[in-house]
Design goal:
Layout lengths: L1 H32 L1
Keywords: Membrane, Transmembrane, Transmembrane helix
Length: about 35
């Protein structure tokens, strides 16, 4: 079904965005600790 594919694509994009955001926050905290 089209809706299922769209939901799956949205979930993957959200998952990647969340991982990038968490990595950026963690990397920034490491730089501030230097």
């Amino acid at each position: 079904m089209m809706a299922e594919g769209t939901f799956r694509t949205f979930f993957v994009l959200f998952y990647v965005f969340a991982n990038c955001y968490c990595f950026a926050v963690h990397f920034q905290s490491l730089l501030l600790n230097l």
